[in-house]
Records
---
Amino acid sequence: MGLRPRARSGGEINRLGPRGTPTGLRLGPRGTPTGLRLGPRGTPTGLRLGPRGTPTGLRLGPRGTPTGLRLGPRGTPTGLRLGLWILCFSWFCFTAHAQMKIPPETVQFWANILSVQLRETTTRYSGANILQKKLKDVESIIKIVDIDGRDQVRDFAEDMERMLGSKMKSVKRLAESAEDADLYHDFNKTLEFDYYNSMLVNTADEDGNFIELGGEFPLEKNKHFNNLPVNTQQSDVQVPTNVYNKDAYILNGIYWSEALNDVFMNNFQKDPTLTWQYFGSSSGFFRIYPGIKWTPDSNGVAAFDCRNRNWYIQAATSPKDIIIVVDISGSMKGLKMTIAKHTINTILDTLGENDFVNVIAYTDYVRYVEPCFKGTLVQADLDNREHFKVLVDELHVKGEGKVAKAMKESFKILNEAATKGQGSLCNQAIMLITDGAMEDFKDVFEEFNWPDRRVRLFTYLIGREMTFADNTKWIACNNKGYYTHISTLADVQENVMEYLHVLSRPMVINHNHDIIWTEAYMDTVLPNTKELFATKAQSLLLMTTVAMPVFSKKKETLSHGILLGVVGSDIPLLEVMKLAPRYRLGPHGYAFLITNNGYILAHPDLRPLYKEGKTLKPKPNYNSVDLAEVEWEDIDEILRTAMVKGEMGTLSLNVRASVDKAKRPLFLTNDYFYTTINDTPFSFGMVLTRGHGQLMFMGTVSVEEGLHDLTSPDLSISNEWTYCETDIDPHHRKYSQLQAVIRYLQGKEPDLECDEVLLQQTLFDAVVTAPLESYWQAIMLNASGMEMGVETAFLGTRSGLIRLTRYTGIETRVAKKFLTPADKDNLFTVDHFPLWYRLAMENPPGRFIYYIPVEDKDNRDKTGVSKYVIATTAVTVSSGGKMAMAGAIGVQMSLEMLEKRLWTIAFQPADTDCTDVEGVCPLSCQSTDVNCFLVDSNGFIIVSKERSEVGRFFGEVDGSVMAALIKSGMYKKVSLYDYQGMCRSGHSHSSSARPLLSPFYGLAAVIKWFFSHMLMFLLEFNFCGLWHSDYVVDAKAGYHTSHKAKRTDALQPCDTEYPGFMLDNSIKETNSLLKCGRCQKMFVVQAVPDSNLVLMVVQADCDCSRQYSSITLEPKEVKYNASVKCNRMKSQKVRRRPKSCHAYHPKENAKDCGGASEISLSVALFLASLATSLALRRWT
């Protein structure tokens, strides 16, 4: 499936002899044909060239022929001078090619000199030999140990199990307290009660007095809560704008839930690693601890409704199979269809990855909205739900509605799924969305659902008409469902939520407190989301929630199965993954978590964000990325299957990895170790890279000796690693990791919990690397010996320790960001080792590699002013016949320094002795006749005469030479895949030709838009944008559930293939001639010894761009035909079902099946919402 360069017409590589000349051509000592002498300009002696490159005295006519030369009818010179002209032009053309013979021995000579000079510079200024010698001296006191992956993965999983278990205990205490508080509270419909409304707290009116429900609420920034201002002594309450904040049910619920305040604080004291704790009420309010100031959206409203959240829905119900049946007959036109679509989308939003779904539309025949899903259920993951929304948006009304066929089809699907063991194997329901049922379809239910009534029916009567309401209600009430009437868009949310309460009845009556864990999600409600996007590793921005339902224990309502709400707590996955320390995984090792459905919770290759313009946004499918889409080398999905089943084991795979923004490929052998985390639906995996990744060396030094060197000003340790746990005791949160380590070792903070193994290794590394501090200082003191352009020397060890010295001041330094806290790529972070460390590990120890960091396409510096070069190499330690990687050391240089070196070396003065040179002599890279490049082992240009080309892939600059190097095998292409790509769709789902049908279409569309929006404006009371949700936390970004989203040319999830290139180190040199139309291009490529560089000298005056297109690293979308795409979407991979299912209880009161004549916004609710929005707009 790899991408291969296409053959180019007219482009071919001539066959060269052993001296780089065309076979059959003999050259003299200067590289010219025998008998032909060249002058100082490389032209035959006696031949003078004019300004157009032609021999003087030779004038060309308009057709490119010498003037005075008459052509016959076939284009040949007439007369007896034909032979003379042929001889003349053959000789002229031949001499033009011969003058561009580039001597390979000259290029080789330059490469050797450059190698020596680079080696001397990097070795001297880095101190690599000093460090390697010091490591040699301590080999007798160290021990190299093999990492036992099986034991390590088990230890990590047990630590995670203990951590997650403590969170579950906290949630259980909240649930018990909430149920007791409700049990002893008597409902008071006249209750008046002031509470802290999180939207209104600390809000004053014009007179400086706090507004109602907006009293003084002390807030203080807290590092544990992402530096948000919080109140750890009090919770507060958020009420959605579409819920009346003084409704009797709201006030009573808020009143008795005040009892949770003490439990929140006690939980936090028992487990200081807890983050947000909360209670989401079934009536709509949301109590959160610690208390915060809620930030409204741009319309001044609080669109967040806890009942829409996945943690609430999963905790409130068991897994379910849902068939949505929607009426699209002619009677559903206009606003009815708009409401119906919104109802479908809202139902879809209540589903999760443990649920299964399909959507059927009906008129006088049954139509699957996705024909691919005919007769089956598909997992309700994010991809499928959003796919359904797109298709539902395109539904159009027509014909007569005949619901019986659709009902029968729905029952068949559900019965077949249950028979075959497919779907959720738990709750089953049909959602009928229609403007009326003309009959009760008793015969259908007798055939498919009675007497067991295993499938519940929920009916949604759309529109203001009530003509067929009785039949619609009868269908629901006689099939253990619920009937609702939806007359406006504003009614949709509350009415859809009713089905969740019905499905929760068996669980509530049984009083089963099932603990649920959600898939990974990104909580963009919090006000500092953008800062988190910019500063944290993408794969660790996510969190999971542990939640538990809260039931009414009052005896009088037991058969009704009343759900009071859901309690929960967030667990940042960053904190979970810290329990698998980086230093025990190695430079290319990593840990990851997946769910029971095979979706990723945490993985270093998970990229949940994408960039649109300058804005980072969550991808639409960011939390439904399957393990197989990241570990794509596991073609048979052996790893995924075993982990989903909850097994423990190992697997080895040869993989193609990549670093430096996925532009530099690596071939690795990974050993995978995996196990399950008990009492959760999660499985944990760990990777150790074969070889150096599975070896660690241990050294011992005294605390006193280590402390002395640990306090050196040039030393730092990773502040994202956990050397000591500073988050348990609030008093410790003010310390950096280095400060905490030092205070612990000094005995000033004995209560700190520290990683003793990591501390011992850090102390040892500090002592071993200490001589570098004085060595670097000595170089700096010898000012006369300092070379301009060497800016920073640095080293790093596996313990996360970094030493560095700055040879130049910040004012003159080119790489101002390098190794600063903002330079995440080059530091030890929670999810990766520095780039320079990882690259050094995959190259022979002692051999420096050179590279310029790959720049983002949007931030590329075309001037080259800010570009710099990094040189790095690995250092090793040996003991007991084993060799382990001790760390990496290197220097950072300015680009200008390397350029000066190369241009000085690659220059032959005019008095050069050219006696034994075969080809152009003297030769210089400064000449306009040739282009010279210094290119690294991945094909990126490090030095070029054109600064704008530096850092770019060489194939983009010269596709002809790169194609020849790939063909010769000097560079090998590596095909890589990205199943998390984002591609521009370039089209809309609707017909792009439609505007051409009528010149008045545009005007009609505008008029239609105006009146439809005006109508909905009046029907919804939507004066303040009540129903818009700009920051719904799940992946609704880009897919608005109420209104049509603009999808033209939008970025959509896609699969892509992209190339990477690697130098074959066994090929040291190559040269060739490329035939490009009327000219031939010669190039010579020579490897620079003891480095990862090659020196290229290329003829400059032969343009091959017509014959060879550029070779880029741009990803190409992998296109799938319709059948493949269909199979991928509906395929049901191996998954582990949740252990519990609550679908039936004999005491359930099925008569409570709805029937309110109309459920809509009350005048009080409307006025309250309007007043709240106006107040917020005025005072915020």
---
Amino acid sequence: MRTSRSGFGGNNGRGEKVEHIPSSRTVQLGRVQPQAPGHRTIYCNDREANTVKFKGNSISTTKYNIFTFLPKGLFEQFRRVANLYFLMISILSCTPVSPVTPLTNVLPLSLVLFASLVKEAFEDWKRLQNDKAINNSPIEVLRDQKWERIPWKLLQVGDIVRVKQDGFFPADLLFLASTNTDGVCYIETANLDGETNLKIRKGLEKTWDYFTPEKASEFKGEVQCEQPNNSLYTFTGNLIIQKQTLPLSPNQLLLRGCSLRNTEHIVGAVIFTGHETKVMMNSMNVPSKRSTLERKLDKLILTIFGVLFCMCLLGAIGSGVFINRKYYYLGLNVRSNLDPQFNPGNRLVVVFLTMFTLITLYSPIIPISLYVSVEMIKFIQSNQFINNDLHMYHAETNTPALARTSNLNEELGQVEYIFSDKTGTLTRNLMEFFKCSIGGEIYGTGVGEIEMGVAQRNGMKVEEVQKSSNAVHEKGFNFDDARLMRGAWRNEPNPDMCKEFFRCLAICHTVLPEGEDSPERIQYQAASPDESALVTAAKNFGFFFYRRTPTMIHVRESHVEKMGKIQDVSYEILNVLEFNSTRKRQSVVCRYPDGRLVLYCKGADTVIYERLVDQNNDLGKTTREHLEQFGAAGLRTLCLAYKDLSFDAYENWNEKYIQAKSSLRDREKKLDEVAELIENNLTLIGCTAIEDKLQEGVPSCIETLSRAGIKIWVLTGDKMETAINIAYACRLINNDMKQFIISSETDAIREVESRGDQVEIARFMKETVKNELKKCHDEAQRYLNTVSGPKLTLLIDGKCLMYALDPSLRVMLLNLSLNCSSVVCCRVSPLQKAQVTSLVKKGARRITLSIGDGANDVSMIQAAHVGVGISGMEGMQAVMASDFAIAQFRFLTDLLLVHGRWSYLRICKVVTYFFYKNLTFTLVQFWYTFQTGFSGQRFYDDWFQSLYNVIFTALPVIILGLFEKDVSAALSKKYPELYREGIRNTFFKWRVVGTFAFFSIYQSLVLYYFVISSSSKGLNSSGKIFGLWDVSTMAFTCVVVTVNLRLLMMCNTFTKWHHISVGGSILAWFIFVFIYSGVAIDKGVFRVIYVLMGTFYFYLALLLVPVVALLGDFLYQGVQRWFFPYDYQIVQEVHRHEPDYSMAGLLEIGNQLTPDEARSFAIAQLPREKSKHTGFAFDSPGYESFFASQQGVSAPQKAWDVIRRASMRSRSKTSRNK
């Protein structure tokens, strides 16, 4: 009966491992860096007045220049311990104590350094070409009252420039004037954040006239603004013009890398240039990640250093003991002119010098080509296997998987904790207006998919409601209730409340309309899908928002005064109090045509209810019940409210608002404080409920990952009820689990909050959270100590989490969380997401993966060991910050269980094989030292030692790292439990390294003593006994054959490349030795191979020695596989007769796609951005249409192609003119 070595289970009788972190451990979660103080003063259109030396507009993304390449490049290479070690060995080999010629060690080091520097130079040269193309792009600058074209690199701060439609902004510009009469322009920020929806920017009314070159030359404004920083969405400053100070905001700033749309041209003043632009400042300080296995590899290298030191010390002491004048035949009895290394009169010097000799002699024990080989393997794995996997290609959006770094491939095979955003990651982020509550009445008859899942969970059968024939369903709107459609709301009990509800939807937003002024053809450009869905809902209810200017919103209202009447109404927008993650609400102050002043506000229920004139009236209580009902159905909710304003009260408030807006210091904070003064005493209108459906395959993906031993945590900003039901729908939690809920929505906490004492609230919350954590932790321990207790899950909201992350409670939270199968954190901020990730990463020291799709997930993605970005509806900021990018959450199954597991297995085998083959090679030399009186006499020829790593054993290990797989991709997903071997680090433990070391010692003894013993009485064809170089050449031949055959014994998969590489390496040795021994007249190996091959002994030894050497490994592997099999070996036995179709997911099987999908995939494989950053300002801008035309693939042109094509055309014309 066979027993599995590791099984598919765990430790405490229930297949679960009980986690416990010592309470004494300190977990640091990091801190926020403060921004530099001060401001800069810029004189526009007056270069002489700008006495301060600002940076130029030329950018450089290269790492080196012509002077720094060699010193800096070599410094980068010698930061690696192994390279520094070989530099020391190379220096030692040039000294008299070295037994080998300098070439022996210098050649391999030079080859490795040369390969690395060539790679660095090529990548930097590509960056240089991109920099040149960008820096030489033309821009129109005002010179002597006319527009003059100059390269971007010659721009200076204060210059006045003109940018035409579809052009890119060459620097950060202050927007002055445009061809649009209302002083606005439309920009696309895709190169900054990936968002393709247009943004509106509005110049100050004072500067609208500075449009023509004549008028622009009169502009002499002074700008006082913040110092350069990397915040893309904030800007504070003042423009002093004609002795008047005007506040500047992000609405007047045009950022480098953005492009102008739907505007003929604009005029702007340069504020920040070159590396001081916001987009370039965002390119700094990208966290550098190293895989856990790579860090363990450093420990292995240090261990080998220790072994090397012990070997050298043993030999040095042996030399000091052996040296004696009685060995007169060695010349040791000579009193004068004796080499200090062999002077019996000073044994301490003998030991010291012999130590250095042996260090040089045994230097190959550290594999010099290890790092280069591993880098090459990882690069090919990511670029050829991950990027080309059709199982991770999303045909609908034409998005393949993208490995943005190759450093972390094997880390994908050891992930234990996944931290996931909800919206856009687990769900589709395709928002649809589904239900609403107006004046205490629920409208909308549909049943959502999560609501159906909840009902099924409770054992209820839900029949899907049949939609009425008049139901409207378009993008963003999936609402069915005849009571509100086509003016029927006029007959409801609360028509005035309905009217305010619809007007709030139509007016309180920052959406931009595009296209014709008809409901069927108009398109809305919104900052988020929620915004677009709400405006679309207003349109379908008869309040059609069709035009926007900086100060007006135009709405076509139907059925307001009487049924069938349609009228266009213009609302003047006086102030917009924008949404942010702190405020969690958005407000608009507008003036009706009849002069009525109204503040409309929409936001999260928690912040709206705090600001109501009476939140405990019947309407407030009823709406709160409706919010809970919508949340339980997994719907996203917003509350709507309004407030009528008096003219005097508004004027007083507006003065404070303008003053706050003009402030250079803490502007955002002051604006929030001013907003609090007017956003109060609101009247509740109702709430909206938007459905965001689950992504395809999410439940099955989560179930598969859970079986693989991966614990999934959901970190979301949604309400707890919504998050819980999404978790149920995803199968993250179920009714069989024991749920620990720590919520701030309790009567006791509400009572304390109602008193308003912030100190008391904080004290009470911390104490409550502490007690809840202790109670849950104790209960969890009781469940974990039972044999068949339920799985555990923790649900905690943002307020409680804030106190739970306190240093005094952090470890208790961690201990509780680690013993839960899943954790759901609700109402959390982006910072809390990063803190929770860091808590597990640093506190539990487990390998973590964060996955998200929005800008609010960037900090979480960068905090984890591995960051995965989803290219979804919320732009590309998450992708730009990630290590790997995929289009759908379900692709995590292939990324982790297939590519991650294979990469981990391959890198482990590559590293252990490198260790084995170099130790075997060096130990043969070590055994020889015992027979030479520890003198340091070399056993191998210098060239044999030099080429052992770089030619005779180099290629097979790379093939092993590329093509090795234990089971197919299909079986990896069918048996996700196999993934647990990576979590446990089964294949790179010290026990595994020790096993390889043991057999390396055994094989080296066989290789040395069998050859030495068998050749001691052997004779060559001329009757002479074999000499040193005959024996060493025979031994080296056996070493090369043995280690190459041993690699084949490690393989689970054999391809033609395995046979070619192993056979080719052995053949390369014979070809080399034939040529070398024939031409090396002054070497001891001259004609040695010809003499050896003329004897029967050579062929017998070549057959028997490797067989005997590998016999121990063969028996060990047989016993291990039969009696102590790994999990993958059991699966291999079960499916040993099934064919392997694992390559079916790669590009070679293109005929599995439809013609349209094949074309999309071909476009997706064109050269594209691989940098940590994307965008025009960075290296390698994607210009796929050019590459597509080169490869005969039809691809639509992209906006960012324009300048590249222009620069290419200009260069080609120049070349033709020459």
---
Amino acid sequence: MASLSSQPSKKAIRSPGGSTNSQGSNRNSTGQTVKFARRTSSGRYVSLSREDLDMSGELSGDYMNYTVHIPPTPDNQPMDTSVATKAEEQYVSNSLFTGGFNSVTRAHLMDKVIESEVSHPQMAGSRGSACSMPACDGKVMKDERGADVIPCECRFKICRDCYLDAQKETGLCPGCKEPYKMGDYDDEIPNFSAGALSLPAPGEKGDNRNMSMMKRNQQGEFDHNKWLFETQGTYGYGNAYWPQDEMYGDDGDDGMRGGMVDAGDKPWKPLSRVIPIAQGIISPYRLLVVVRLIVLGFFLAWRLQHPNNDAIWLWLMSVTCEVWFAFSWILDQIPKLCPINRSTNLEVLRDKFDLPSPSNPTGLSDLPGVDLFVSTADPEKEPPLVTANTILSILSADYPVEKLACYISDDGGALLTFEAMAEAASFADLWVPFCRKHEIEPRNPETYFSLKGDPTKNKKRSDFVKDRRRVKREYDEFKVRINGLPDSIRRRSEAFNAREDMKLMKHIRESGADPTEVARVLKATWMADGTHWPGTWTVPSSEHSKGDHAGILQVMLKPPSSDPLFGAPDDKIIDFSDVDIRLPMFVYVSREKRPGYDHNKKAGAMNALVRASAVLSNGPFILNLDCDHYFYNCRAIREGMCFMMDRGGEDICYIQFPQRFEGIDPSDRYANHNTVFFDGNMRALDGVQGPVYVGTGCMFRRFALYGFDPPQADRLPSKETTEMQPLKPTDFDPDLDVNLLPKRFGNSTLLAESIPVAEFQGRPIADHPAVKYGRPPGILRAPREPLDATTVAEAVSVISCWYEDKTEWGDRVGWIYGSVTEDVVTGYRMHNRGWRSVYCITKRDAFHGSAPINLTDRLHQVLRWATGSVEIFFSRNNAFLGSRRLKLLQRLAYLNVGIYPFTSLFLIVYCFLPALSLFSGQFIVQNVNVVFLIYLLIITICLIALAILEVKWSGVGLEEWWRNEQFWLISGTSAHLAAVIQGLLKVIAGIEISFTLTSKSAGEDIDDIYADLYLVKWTSLMIPPIVIAMVNIIAIAVAFSRTIYSSVPQWSKFIGGAFFSFWVLAHLYPFAKGLMGRRRKTPTIVFVWSGLIAITLSLLWVAINPNANATTTEAGTGNSFQFP
């Protein structure tokens, strides 16, 4: 890490490009240019000459905002790195980093992030007491507990910048005028947290190899691992590097007697297992699929051999539709032949990775790191309170704190989202320890405090009721602050803008300039510290709009220490004396956007987070969530890790969790729960090559996202090599030229160096002979490197709009571009390279989210999904073009993904067929004979039996299955049809498809949580189902009247046509209820247009064929009736 003594404080900013030249773990930048500048109160940067700086005399706060990294030279040596590390971490966490295309990367030191007070020492804006230097308004550095860091024994309080200046100029403390000494401040003591005190090994006495504790690494800190290795010393029992020979002797007499047992000495147990479906269910199910397939073949052959010569057009349309439906059923049904269930063992995971052992006396976790991504784009459609609650549930997840890193992607660049996230980080100081202390579940505060029932159930501590009451009061105040942020930002910005206007008018009067020729002050949006927000302004302007703003990165919560940090009884309003109060790392990211660049919507935002997180934390696994999907099960990450860390888990590309939704009406009118897909189709694919990726609630292997193939033991170096050191990227992809790494991943050296590290750390532990591709135990217990400004600046550069130019991001690497359903395409690419995925259904739902219960919003959501499927069908991601690594049943499933919207063309026709049959007096068969009825009966019985068995093995309710069938017809005649039309327009005419963000906000009626259900918003998607319903109703009435007044009524044809019409209308019943609304709010024009179209079609048919049944009306007697 670059030393902070090499940073001229208060005066300089770094130029772009320097961070990309960093090498190795030191992250030093070379060839940097120093620019001197000052930031005005309006946020603009004014270049200054060296003379201007020397003549300024007074160190103004304007010069506190910038830093520069200069390589150490003989006259510029690093200072005490322990102090430097703390200073650097505080500087990073209190700075807002901005940059982008053709611009300087700047670090703006923020005195205040939000209006409210910040208390947690990890959080941005948390700073110590005032600096004692004259004319300095800086704050003293803080340690992990929030106490002031005072580097001199005279207790002279000094801020980071003044400390750097004193170190560089004289090396003397400004208070006592004595030289600073290494290790003179309170925290500079040996750290024994990684193990017990130094003791002789078992069986030895007076071992002189336990050397002095002053042995340090290059950073001046005691290196326990190096000491153990070089001296063969011990902490507690044994040594992880040099185990005593007699400890594990075969006779057992001289071995370890009592004490802790290493995980490797226990019987090996799997972390997960596959539970097959009971043969009494799956065997009849498969048999019925075969029977129905055979019967369908015979039925279609009979239909083709027996045309209806009286209405050949009706017969041809019906047969064509039936053949397509059979083909569509095969694509949907065949991949369901191999469903499985899975279970995990969290106790075994804990024993292997978290329990203390002779080689790990304090129980430091050996689990790999996880980076969590949350995406949001518009605070108006995605309320900040919802996003904040999601963040709080993530920060309180049950996983080693030092292994977690949370990233929020604000694609709108809104100050409202930024300050809401800062408020969430501040409230996490209370909420997260409260959840750990009382084992709260779920850990979304809004959901938790809304639960009905006894909150004290299963609670063991006597102070729970008192703590809950206090946290509830604080949360209510937190909600008030979040909901008041829009008004607070508006008032603040108006006040600052008024001040700027007054300054401008004063300048005009003093200079005598013409007011009409002077440019007006832009209506800026202002941050809490009184400077311009670098992102999107409320009143958009150049470089401050949704599609035109700089890249922004703020470390809201700096990385925690590797050792537990317990609270003090009087620190908070709640006693956390026995609770770990550390918080996971939390970073706000808003990627740069500029006009003329294709930013690729959500996929582009996710790829920006992949790159930024690789530079900052580089977790081997990535879990992405939508802003409205929160942790309902705090152990969800551990559940997924049971598969990734198990034997054979090295070829798993992602773990997909099912989506569960809240706020759905009890009847689930529009099949929002989608349980047939999540509990049926996805569970079945888990038995093939794995479930498809559905956009949220998915834990990825970072290495798989980088576009590499799964590991193959025969193509890799020897086992000894692969287990003891990370491999190079070319070891996984022989066709990859090292010199072409920038072409694939971009020109960031730190990003390229992080790839093999992430791969190595993501391997399972090699604790079983069958694990051919693992890592040695214990290597992930080392603490994470602290962040420095150079690293954060590099992260800013990789989220710039130009970084992906001429690279393979979005084409092979990361989330794939080119479709509005980038999730399905991304998962398909991984399966196509030979990876497999796993479906993780937990006993307690892993995540909960929201879904649109309004009919219009639901149809638009389905339209987006179907449009993406059409794009997939016409792209190179069509499963027809898949590689041989894609299994047959998996290929059929992906084919169905691209083909299912086209079923709407045949479904529309088939829904009109009953009406046409009733109008014409004909039927799809010439005679409703016994053979036709037998075929129809067998197919229907098979369908019912298959539905019942599928309900059995999937756990789906029969009513849920029926709701799914109903909405399949509703969406198939509306959204799917529109998607096919839009997809064809894009392919043929190149017309782009607009993407509508699904609203996550609640209805206006706060007294009714289902208010949105009754809200009717007009959309053209409603026209086809309405026309189908009205035409069928009119056809039934016309045919019934004609049959009654006919001299020779043909009731069989009427009943046949009416039966199919009622079948159509029964499926459209939820749609009709949705149109009615609560107070019949349906626009009149909807009924007018639909009725007009239906009547016109009916009269058109009558005009074309006025006498459809001449034999029945040729008598023309007075007691007969003929439709005119």
